[in-house]
Amino acid sequence: MIACSVNAVLIKVACQGLEPKHLGKSISEMQHNLGILNDMYGVNVCGEGGEYETFTLDCPLFIKSIVIDEYESVVHSDDKIAPVGYLNFKKIHLQNKAGDLENLTLHERLKNIPVKTPYDYIAEIVGPEMQDGCNFSDNENDETDGDSKSLKSSNSGSFSPPSPTESKYDDEDYPDIPMANRSKTGWHWFGGIIGKDSDTKIAMEEALDKLSSLVEHEGLDMENLVGVTMYVKDLSEYSTINDVYTTRLPHTNPPVRVCIQCPINVPVVIDALAYKGIHQNDDEQVLKKHTMHVQSISHWSPASIGPYSQAVRIGHIIAVAGQIPMVPGNLSLLDMNIKRQCRLTLRHINRIVNAMDSSTQLRDIVQGICFLTHHSYIAEARKEWEKRTNNAIVDYIVVPHLPRNAHVEWWVWAHRDNNRFEYEETGRCVGNFKVAIRRRWNYENDVSAIVCYLSTRSSNSTGNLATETSLNSSELTDDELTEAFEYLLAKLTKDSKSENPTCNLRIFYKVANLPGPNMIRRVLDNFSNRNLVTTIVPTTHLHNFSTFLSVCGVRHE
């Protein structure tokens, strides 16, 4: 404000270190004192905590300045530690400023003022180290020009976006088996919900009707929803889908949301998470739902561009909406460079979880899914993630399209006690295939998460084979797939306090390949005695060429 020639004076003081004698002083006069108070008492130098209020007498936007002729100082509270006082203006007048300002355009008046553009606030994406806990620069990267103009004008630097991946679709019908289940502590999962009418609007209404019925059957209402994931056939129908969604979901404190386009042969598939606290005993408190639903535009992090919250916290668990690389100040998509898109998206996540809990950062992510629009982006996305944290287990899924034509969308959830989580990698061979699992769980073992890959034996943990593998009907049997699911469920439920805990599984498979949705569904029928909620999702590619099935599982107790 000072650098931009804003002449603002204090008209209210209400914190330790500020007194009524400071009323009427300009922010330039108070700058040094406010810095000292920040060091001594943590006073926000900008008064963001209500420490003081100002009144602007002059700034470059004004054609005339304001002059105070008469005022009175009022002491509202003569507290010894933090007195409260304010000014009452009795008489003021406008005064002409030097120069012919009335004939100057706004641009001409501001051309010498150091006003930042939305791109200036993301210049650190290719510039120096960030100041909020994560380094979002890349010292090894040859993109050293941090000038904001390069961000606006360069489409991709030295990077050329690959050709779009051709979308294939399964011939077999998608299983229509909506389901719900709950944990003993009030967590509810919903999955396998589809809308299959050829009309997208009717299909969306159909899917939300099914979700609403399941929610009601569980003794909940839609306000209890924590998160919703929508897998849609065609994102060009987003406005239609969103219009229906808006009429059915709560407008105040809505759930977080993830929306991606998948090669499904129905218009929409939905899964959801809800929470309603249960009194286990008289001494135990029911956890409250805390939401962050920022709709105003700022330079901090993107505003909500739909009827969803940026984050929802229940106890120690923080669910974050799917994040794409939008420039916060104007909600435009960052240039097409995948490195920059990943950095900006991860910065959004870091700021959101930190706003939900000041001690929580990107390193406290437990599990995530990185959706990308081309398999060639996976290596860069993994590199950008692992430069910042190796704590989380992250799956990489390739889909045809993402909102706003972004190349990347990250979906994550964090835990405030993430430093008390264990980690292991395990695996086994099933027939001619390999099952690889990464698992994380907390000391109490009431929260557990896995990412499981089923691959040909030619794969490695992060391998990028030159050619894509495919299976025929004789290579993978129902018994082998059943054995693989038995293994991953044994790991997900290992040492659980419950005899048959509820588990939520998102099962990703490569479209037009084995196993298809009906084979997966047929195998899952073998686990009808287990408390499972499953959603089967087709993709164009998984984390490497040899992987043909990927499962993200979670258990909350």
Automatic annotation (TrEMBL):
Q: In which pathway does it act?
A: Protein modification; peptidyl-diphthamide biosynthesis
Which reaction(s) does the protein catalyse, per the Swiss-Prot or TrEMBL entry? diphthine-[translation elongation factor 2] + NH4(+) + ATP = diphthamide-[translation elongation factor 2] + AMP + diphosphate + H(+)
**EC numbers for this chain:** 6.3.1.14
Note the Pfam families from the entry. Diphthami_syn_2, Ribonuc_L-PSP
Q: Where is the composition biased (Low complexity)?
A: 151-160
Q: Which UniProt keywords apply?
A: ATP-binding, Ligase, Nucleotide-binding
Q: Which protein, by its recorded name, is this?
A: Diphthine--ammonia ligase
EC category:
ligase
